[in-house]
Design goal:
With about 625 residues, this protein is of the alpha+beta class. Helix content is about 50%, strand content about 15%. The protein contains 24 helices and 17 strands. A 4-stranded antiparallel sheet has the order 14-3-16-15, sandwiched between helices. The chain has a 4-stranded antiparallel sheet with strand order 10-5-12-11. Helix 10 crosses helix 20 and helix 12 crosses helix 17. The N terminus and C terminus are likely disordered.
């Protein structure tokens, strides 16, 4: 057997540990047994390495599990495909095959001794005494359905891939000049002064001719194209669906109210000031001065504190971390100052409450509806699960979705037309349970396909089917003439405002006008910004303006949309704020960040070069058949 050579020269216990740890490594890497399915039709070829449909199915299953973990729930195959499953699987398989081919051409390999040294250090399959458990090994091997030979091959393959990628991705330390350039780019700030140019300042747009409108329509077909619509049938088994089975009584609601009434509604909130002192003696002296007439804030200032330092804001009891301080704060009368408080978290403080916002506990009748929803959600899961099984049994017996709904007395809802955004042709929006996931599923399948139900968690379970597809189509000019004219006028207005703003920029740049002159002409004022970084925005100053500002010298002028009613701004770069010097800790962080980015880029280029060198061929017909399958792998 393939493990015999490794077992030779090793003690029995070490050999058993070796075999078991191979199982653990497989569980980590999820690589297919290359000896299973040998001789099947090749799906993908990268150089000398072949990938079969079975390899694809196993990789797809692994990627689907990974995507489900990231989403925090089990994804259906249709949902995962809508999120890019097929692309991820191809990238994984082709990239891995390219590296394997390169390793073969380089004559690289992993010796038995090196492999043994690696896996004997892994404690995953050791028992309490540090010995390998052969029973666990045999069980794991049976579970994954692999041979020892295939398993050992997989581990060698992954070691080779890891070593190649680590070597390729190793980069030198980033030069200081690069770090300084990044610091300059990230931390430099610019202060602008600007004037708002409203659309009312531009010339009035004249009425369009029919030719103007038709030309606009011809150049903007995307605006006037009706989206794809789908006709959908669905069954939604929600908490409301099974409500009658749960028998929620008035007594249930009253009992729930008594348990939760303190957490319902809005809690009492207080504006709290706090002076922290080094010890109880200092706190007593400060308290005596306050009771003798010194203002609480003045006392804080004598101790070197500002009003900001002592202001805890308006808080609820739960917002105060120290329970002892919270208890005292919510006992105080308004404007009263506490005795010195020794908190449970350490430290001694004096506190004052300056404002009190009373809390409100809703009455039973006010809270009744929300209480019922909460109980319904808690109790509905069992009934929904039972109904899920009944629906699945009906479908398995050959019933259509509509027939299953009729037999089980469920509502079969038909939506005649809905687009990807959940809108109907008239612009109204449909309301669906788990709407985002359901729409993704609807547009990831096709008419006549049986789809997996969507687990909407608290919202229940939804079965759906596509009953028809209306492809996207360009609306006729006569249908949208009014819409075309509205959009044409909006574009022309923007153009007029842009021309006026550019005229001001030219005048400012030539020195014939100042920003103050422009403001006076527009009957407005010159406004300043705070110091802005490249990715900052502020009121009226949007990303295009900030981007321009960083391409201009100090004193340079520019113009950009303001985001307010088709208006623009005309601005001047008033000041350039140089970044502070980078400290050593920040330099180390930047070097690590740059190194990671360079490593990722290098590995990406490596993959691209390998695929170009060895060539990638895909059996498109076989892949289309595989990807087009609606069955779970």
């Amino acid at each position: 057997m393939a493990l015999d050579r490794l077992r030779q020269g090793a003690a029995k216990t070490v050999g058993l540990i070796l075999v078991g740890l191979l199982v653990v490594s497989f569980a980590v890497w999820g690589i297919a047994d290359i000896f299973t399915g040998y001789g099947q039709q090749t799906l993908i070829r990268v150089g000398d390495t072949e990938i079969t449909a079975q390899d694809y199915a196993r990789a797809q299953q692994d990627v689907l599990r990974s995507m489900s973990q990231q989403a925090g729930r089990s994804l259906s195959l249709q949902e995962a495909r809508a999120a890019g499953l097929d692309t991820r699987v191809l990238e994984r398989l082709i990239g891995g095959a390219a590296v394997d081919t390169h390793a073969t051409h380089l004559g690289l390999g992993i010796s038995d001794d090196a492999l043994l040294a690696q896996i004997t250090k892994d404690p995953a399959f050791q028992d309490g005494a540090g010995n390998f458990s052969p029973l666990a090994f045999q069980a794991a091997l049976r579970n994954i359905g692999m041979t020892e030979a295939g398993y050992l091959y997989s581990l060698r393959e992954q070691n080779l891939r890891r070593q190649l990628l680590v070597t390729v991705g190793e980069v030198a330390n980033s030069p200081r000049a690069l770090i300084d350039a990044m610091n300059q780019f990230n931390e430099e700030r610019r202060i602008l002064k600007y004037v708002l140019v409203p659309k009312s300042a531009a010339e009035e747009v004249s009425a369009p001719t029919e030719e103007d409108l038709k030309a606009y329509y011809d150049n903007h077909h995307a605006k006037f194209t009706q989206p794809e619509y789908r006709k959908v049938g669905l069954i939604a088994v929600t908490p409301e669906t099974v409500k009658d089975q749960l028998n929620i009584t008035e007594d249930d609601l009253k009992a729930e109210y008594e348990i939760k009434k303190e957490t319902l509604g809005a809690p009492e909130r207080r504006h709290v000031q706090q002076i922290a002192l080094p010890d109880i003696e200092a706190a007593r002296k400060a308290h005596e001065k306050i009771t003798s007439g010194t203002d609480f804030v003045e006392m804080a200032k004598e101790l070197g504190l500002t009003e900001t330092d002592i202001d805890l804001g308006t808080v609820a009891r739960k917002d105060l971390a120290d329970p002892t301080i919270a208890e005292e704060a919510f006992k105080l009368e308004k404007d009263a100052v506490s005795e010195p408080i020794e908190g449970k978290l350490g430290g001694v403080v004096l506190i004052r409450v300056t404002e009190i916002e009373p809390g409100k506990i809703p009455s039973f009748e006010e809270a009744k509806e929300d209480l019922e929803k909460g109980i319904l959600k808690d109790r509905a899961s069992g009934a929904i699960f039972d109904m899920h099984d009944k629906v699945e049994d009906e479908l398995a017996a050959g019933s259509t979705l509509e027939e299953a709904a009729g037999k089980l007395k469920l509502d079969y809802q038909v939506i005649d037309q809905v687009d990807r955004e959940g809108r109907k042709p008239d612009g109204s929006t449909v309301t669906l349970p788990a709407q985002k996931d359901l729409l993704n599923g609807i547009f990831a399948t096709d008419a006549g396909i049986e789809n997996d139900p969507i687990d909407a968690r608290d919202e229940g379970v939804i079965w759906y089917e596509v009953l028809g597809v209306t492809p996207e189509q360009l609306k006729q000019f006569d249908q949208v003439r009014d819409e075309v004219e509205t959009d044409w006028r909006a574009d022309e207005t923007r153009n007029q405002v842009a021309k006026l703003a550019q005229k001001f920029v030219s005048q400012l740049s030539s020195g014939s006008k100042t920003l103050e002159d422009v403001a006076k002409e527009l009957d407005t004022e010159v406004l300043p910004t705070s110091a802005l970084k490249r990715d900052d925005i502020t009121v009226n100053v949007l990303p295009p303006a900030v981007s321009q500002a960083f391409a201009l010298p100090k004193g340079g002028f520019g113009s950009a949309a303001s985001g307010v009613d088709e208006g623009r701004i005309v601005f001047r770069v008033d000041e350039i704020v140089e970044p502070p010097a980078v400290d050593e800790r920040a330099i180390n962080q930047l070097q690590s960040r740059i190194g990671l980015l360079l490593s990722e880029d290098t590995i990406a280029e490596y993959f691209s070069a390998l695929e170009s060198r060895y060539g990638v061929s895909v059996n498109q017909q076989a892949l289309a058949k595989l990807v087009g399958s609606s069955e779970e792998p």
